[in-house]
Specification:
This protein folds into 2 domains: 191 residues, Glycogen Phosphorylase B (Rossmann fold, 3-Layer(aba) Sandwich); 167 residues, Glycogen Phosphorylase B (Rossmann fold, 3-Layer(aba) Sandwich). 35% of the residues lie in helices and 17% in strands. Strand 12, helix 10 and strand 13 form a beta-alpha-beta unit. The radius of gyration is 22 Å and the shape is globular. The strands form 2 sheets. It has a 7-stranded parallel sheet with strand order 3-2-1-4-5-6-7, with helices on both faces. A 6-stranded parallel sheet has the order 10-9-8-11-12-13, with helices on both faces. With 391 residues, it is α/β, with parallel strands linked by helices. Helix 1 crosses helix 13.
């Protein structure tokens, strides 16, 4: 297949989940023998080498809200390429890739990683209703109707009228070759042989819950348990506040954002991966725990036992007392107790090995791309004259 992938509001390579997703999917499809062209922003280090054909294209002024203004440029590229598939990352004000697919007669695939429907009490929904004709909802619905296939971690964030036969529910993944136990490289934090390192990697936003790891360490130290060191990797708007929270807590290290290439070694050097999500801190999560947690898959691939809240969807990703420990939020001591239950190194090794085996079997980027390829091939086969051309 010849695939045109539109991800105008990302920049590759990058440290954020969206950029990692775009690169992994593009390279994964190319590894399966497809010709992949990607329209996206170019990271400061330049595009990655390899078989993917990267082309720099960003929204005007770098603002995702203006993506639709690139529709003529995207259509021009599509006409020149003649792709079998045009894939677009969903955004409320997007649709430029879907429009190009329709113009050139390509299969339209929409990746949806954030809610299309509004959560109860959404300010955006109230504004939309004040505009009487609900233009934002109508535009979102139009994008769904233009899509032949929707790829999402959770169908709960799609309009209820969307035919489920057009929906592929599939998780994000980890690069299980690069993220592995014993991955080598400079360690971006200090550790002693006696440390039990609990790592958080991700965005410093309230619902990612990094502050809860700091609080858990404080509780453990109050109990007289000083074995743990918390390492917090990443950046975001809550970072200054969390640094303040950690000021009086011993053995907390902040690394800042790291290049994704540095993450395998950073995780391999740790002992426990912590994903302390806080559902109550993010109103859209009233719909469901809808995102696919990249950090959890990479922890598992690195052979780390996972500590995370007992949330419906996470219980399907991490087997309690086999691949990690799930605790009941929002009990203040629950995260601390879960960490304390992993003081035994043999227990950590058993859980970490099981986590590694699970992610290799079910949650690798290679598996994600295999399922994505199958869905696209099936949709192409069902269309009149939809047989894919050779790359």
């Amino acid at each position: 297949m010849r695939v045109l992938y539109c991800a105008l509001d990302q920049a590759v390579p990058g440290t954020k989940g969206g950029a990692i997703h775009v690169r992994a999917v593009a390279e994964g499809l190319a590894a399966r023998g497809h010709e992949v062209h990607v329209l996206t922003g170019e990271g400061p280090e330049g595009f990655p080498a390899g078989p993917v054909r990267w082309q720099a294209m960003r929204p005007p002024l770098g603002r995702a809200q203006l993506r639709w203004l690139r529709r003529a440029d995207v259509a021009r590229v599509a006409r020149a390429l003649g792709p079998d598939v045009v894939m677009e990352r969903y955004y409320n004000f997007g649709g430029e890739g879907l429009a190009a697919a329709r113009e050139v007669g390509a299969l339209a695939v929409l990746e949806v990683n954030a809610p299309i429907i509004d959560y109860p009490g959404s300010p955006k929904a109230r504004l939309d209703r004040l505009l009487l004709v609900e233009p934002m909802r109508r535009w979102r619905d139009r994008q769904c109707r233009l899509a032949d296939v929707i790829v999402t971690p959770s169908a709960d964030i799609l309009p209820s009228w969307m035919p489920r036969g057009q929906v592929l529910e599939v998780e994000w993944g980890a690069d299980t070759e690069r993220f592995r136990p014993g991955a080598t490289g400079p360690l971006p934090y200090e550790r002693r042989d006696t440390d039990v390192v609990a790592v958080f990697a991700g965005a410093f936003r309230s619902w990612h819950g990094a502050q809860h790891l700091v609080t858990a360490l404080q509780i453990l130290q109050g109990r007289g348990c000083h074995a743990f060191r918390a390492v917090l990797i990443g950046d975001g708007p809550e970072l200054p506040w969390i640094r303040e929270r950690a000021a009086g807590v011993e053995r907390v290290t902040f690394t800042g954002a790291l290049p994704h290439e540095a993450m395998p070694a950073a995780l391999s050097g740790a002992d426990i991966g912590v994903a302390p999500f806080d559902m109550a801190a993010h109103p859209p999560l009233q719909l469901a725990f809808y995102w696919s947690p990249l950090k959890i898959f990479e922890y598992m691939a690195a052979g780390l036992p996972v500590v995370a809240p007992r949330i419906d969807r996470l219980t399907r990703l991490v087997a309690h007392e086999r691949e990690g420990v799930l605790y009941d939020p929002p009990t203040p001591d629950a995260l601390a107790t879960a960490l304390e239950s992993l003081l035994d190194p043999g227990r950590r090794r058993r859980f970490g090995a099981a986590a590694r085996a699970r992610v290799v079997a079910d949650f690798s980027w290679a598996e994600h791309c295999r399922q994505l390829e199958a869905a696209m091939m099936k949709a192409l086969a069902s269309r009149a004259g939809g047989a894919p051309r050779e790359a």
